[in-house]
Amino acid sequence: HRVAAGTDDYPEALKIAERMLAQLKGQPVASPAPVAARTIESAIPEYLKKGEKRGVTEKHTAKLRFELGQFAQYMAARNRICLADVTVDDCAAWSGDLVGTQSTKNKKVGRIVGFFKSAVSRGWCSLNPAQNDDVRIKAPATSTPKAMDQGQLDQLFATITTMPRISDTLRTTLAAVALL
Questions:
Q1: For all residues of the chain together, what is the average pLDDT?
Q2: Distance of alpha carbon 91 from alpha carbon 10, whole angstroms
Q3: 82 - beta bridge partners?
Q4: Considering only CA atoms, which of 139, 138, 94 is closest in space to residue 115?
Q5: How far apart are CA 9 and CA 25, in angstroms?
Q6: What is the pLDDT of residue 107?
C-alpha cells in the first residue's frame, strides 16, 4: 500500500519520507509543524494568482473564481470555514449536490481536487479531502441513450437520399447506421 506525501515539492517529500521511515523503524519522530489555519475564502485569491503566473487564461480564471466561490459558500453553510475543517464527507455531499452532466460534474470535482492539492503543498491543510472515490462522480447504473426524435430522423433520411455522388449501397448503409 503506497502512501502519498501530499506535496509536489521534492525536498518536502524527502522530509516526509524520512519521517515515515523513522516511524516504521520505531524511532522517535518530531511531529511536523502545525498546519496554518487558512480560510477557504482567503486561499482562493492566492490560488488564482498562482494560476495566472502559470499562464491560465482569464476566462478559465473567472470560471475557477466562480466555482471556488460556490464551493466556499457551500462549505460555509456546513460551518466549514477553514480548509483544514473540510472532510471527505463534506466534499462527497458537495459533489452529490452538483447539477449537470457527469462530465461537467467531474470537471468541477477536478478543479476542487487541484485547489486542495495546492493547499496541501502550501501547508494550508494536511490532506486533500476532494481526492477520494466517495467524491468522484460515478456513471449511473442505467442511462437512457439520447436518440433523435421522428422529425430529426426524417430530416436525416431525406438528406441521405438526396446526397449526390454516392452509391445506393452507401445510401443503404448510411440509413442502416442511422437506425442503430
A1: 82
A2: 28
A3: 39
A4: 94
A5: 24
A6: 92
